[in-house]
Amino acid sequence: MEKQWTYNQRILCIGLFGGLFWSIVGYFLYLLHFTKVGPGIALMPWALPEWKNTYIGHLIGILVIGIISIGIAFLYRLLLQKWESIWIAGAFGLLLWVMVFYVLHPVFPGLETVAEMNKKTLTTTLCLFIVYGVFIGYSISYEFNEMQQNDA
Amino acid sequence: MIRRKKWKFKNVSVDKQEDEEGKTKISKHLEINTERLKNRLGIGKSFDVGVREMRILDRDIQIYFVNGLCDMEYIIELLQELLDLDREDNEKEEDTTSVKEAIENHLVHLQVEYKDTLEDCIAEMLAGLIFIVVDGEEQALVVDVRNYPGRTPEEPDNEKVVRGARDGYTENIVQNTALTRRRIRDERLRNEMMRVGERSKTDICISYIDGVADPNMVDIVRKELEAIDLDGLPMADKVVEEYLLKQGLNPFPLVRYTERPDVAAIHLFEGHLIITVDASPSVIITPTTLFHHVQHAEEYRQAPLVGTFLRWTRFFGIFVALFILPLWLLVTLEPGLLPEQLQYIGPNKDSNVSEFFQIISAEIGIEMMRMAAIHTPTPLATALGLVAALLIGQIAIDVGLFTAEVILYVAVAAMGIFATPSYEFGVAIKLARLFLLVAVVSFGSVGFVIASALLFLILVHVRALNKPYLWPFLPFDGQALWQIFVRTSVPSQRYRPRIVNPQDPVKQSTE
Asked: With contacts defined as CB-CB under 8 Å, which chain A residues touch B478?
């Protein structure tokens, strides 16, 4: 705790923490059978040995999501940082969900299509993505506004 | 409406000497003042307002006071001095130029002021000061001889610590600001006093450290307080809170109350504002976030590691209080949710009453027991405990109304509530839990997920004095969250929390 962080450092931290935290929450929800999709989904596109389907796969998946989230955070910074609203941030999360489950669907072998999913998995993943979007988006736009105020 | 106008009109015609602000000036003729004051204060009708008439230096003077709010011994001393003045004067045979000044010079007290209008005098007198009207003078002398009935500082009942200061705020606002001042001898500590309430004239004090607290925030709070227009504030700080923050239907507390001067002082140093209301021992800390409600002074009285352990235990308790009952209800309704290792959870035998109603009635039972415990005098408390614990708990299981597991989880959840440092927050958690329970019993696991997400989003949306409620978790601030997650050592806390927008962000620790 030597120095106050810069804006970019904060965004990096928001992305990393957001990814780790919400994928851990997702893992618990997976363990409690709320959803059939665990954080291990992040490893699906790669051909990996058998451990990718065990808890090791999920733990590494959590790490991978954390790292991917850094990129997502910077994406949000580029596109939407000006608007401090939890609705826009939530919509961003929704968009991510659509990306993962519709657009990028062919990348994940073995993932059920949205039509095949049961109601439980559907609502849980939706809620998780919205909350995740709010976390990243709202944090970044709040930081941005704080920075603007301090400069002014 | 018509009557009111008439009354106003009548009033104006009687008081010819009103100035622009509608205040009555003190007349040079003592009889006029006497008559007005007698009418306005009801002297002779209400027993606690009194007047003492004397003749000093060949002038009539009157001393007005309220019984019970002044230190009588002190007044007697003042009278003694005035009488001595009279005697000295007779011996010297000198012509005293100004009686008013002579009297003022003999009022042996620090706080003596001049007032021009009757309204000011009356306001001061009803606060426990005395005022002296002298014949032929247009100003009255106000002397502060207040001595309120009240208790001495004691340890607050609901914020006890094992180690640390045992003093707590009392009902006396002057004593309270003094307790804070004793911990902050900074010349920049500001205690701004104002009077609110048309009839009660309650004193409210905004405290902040100049140069640390956000001046905009101080302005906002000051304006909001000045805008309060009502008869009185017998419920003191709570009324102020409701005027300051528009709570709506949100059950979560938007300000933190404390009765501990050390807690108040820490928050002042961090750049928060403290609002003290007369006649209430709890002061308001603002702005606050959710995480202010889950910390306790105790944690800072132990080693950082121990403090962290205490804090995590408390977090766990709060988490359990919120989620354990809805989750348990969910797995009894949908046993498929449990992972294999946890299959033993859930009731083994069917009971006559559905689990949801068991939980709800147990919850209401606990709530009733809590209320009963507050209202029961101590000698009867043992009997109450016996009834509550033995009869209700055990027999209800034996009869088959309750399953043992319900009692266990309800009790655990109740313990979690009691472990919450802020009572207001505990009650809010209870309501949130009820919301989750209803969602679970109505819509199962889907309901649980959506209700939890909704609850979270509502909390994100809440802003107390325009500060996000879930900060530093959301909007995320890693450094600040770390200090909440772990009780860090005091030397390492170099920065004041950014949420209060401190003017001087750095605390005075070495680099």
From this structure: 5, 10, 13-14, 17
What pLDDT, in 10s, does the model give residues A6-51?
888 999 999 999 999 999 999 999 999 999 888 888 888 877 787 8
Chain A interface includes B475 (CB < 8 A): yes
Torsion of Cα atoms, B108 then B111 then B116 then B119, to 10°: -120
Instruction: Please indicate, yes or no, if residue A1 is contained in any of the structural domains.
Output: no
**Which helix (H) or strand (E) element contains residue B445?**
helix B423-461
Token readout for A108 is: 């994940």
In a domain, A2, yes or no: no
Kindly state the helix (H) or strand (E) to which residue B433 belongs, with its residue range: helix B423-461
Residue B446 to residue A13, Cβ atoms within 8 A: no
- The domain in which residue A63 lies consists of 7-151
Chain B residue closest in CA terms to A31: B339
**H-type alpha helices, B334-422:** 355-375, 378-386, 396-399, 404-418
Closest CB to B450 among A90, A123, A142: A123
For the record, the structure tokens of B161 come out as 């610590």
Number of domains in chain A: 1
pLDDT digits (tens, 9 = 90+) for A111-123: 888 888 889 999 9
pLDDT at residue B105, rounded to an integer: 85
Which residues of chain B have a CB within 8 Å of the CB of A146?
498
Residue A86 lies in a domain: yes
> Does B230 lie at the interface with A, CB-CB under 8 angstroms?
no
Instruction: Give A87-131 as a DSSP string.
Output: HHHHHHHHHHHHIIIIITGGGSTTPPPTTTS-HHHHHHHHHHHHH
Contact B167, B153 (CB under 8 A): yes
Q: Quick one: closest CA in B to A84, which residue?
A: B475
**Whether residue A98 has pLDDT greater than 90:** yes
In chain B, what residues touch A69 (CB-CB under 8 Å)?
Answer: none
Question: Cβ contacts (< 8 Å) between B337 and chain A: which residues?
Answer: 32-34
Q: CB contacts < 8 Å between A and B, how many?
A: 71
Does B5 score more than 70 pLDDT? no
Question: Is the residue at A81 inside a domain?
Answer: yes
**What distance in Å separates the CA atoms of residue B73 and residue B318, rounded to the nearest whole number?**
53
Name the pairing type of β-strands B256-258 and B273-277: unpaired
Provide CB contacts within 8 A for B507, sequence distance 6+: B269, B493, B494, B495, B496
Q: Which residue, B62, B83, B80, B64, is CA-closest to B136?
A: B62
Mean pLDDT of all residues in B365-375: 85
Roughly how many angstroms between the first and final C-alpha of chain B, as a whole number? 67
Q: What are phi and psi of B495, to 5 degrees?
A: -110, 145
- The alpha helices in chain A, defined as continuous H runs, are 7-31, 55-80, 86-98, 119-151
- End-to-end Cα spacing for chain A: 26
Name every chain A residue with its beta carbon within 8 A of the beta carbon of B333: none
Which H or E run includes B190?
Answer: strand B189-196
CB B467 within 8 A of CB B289: yes
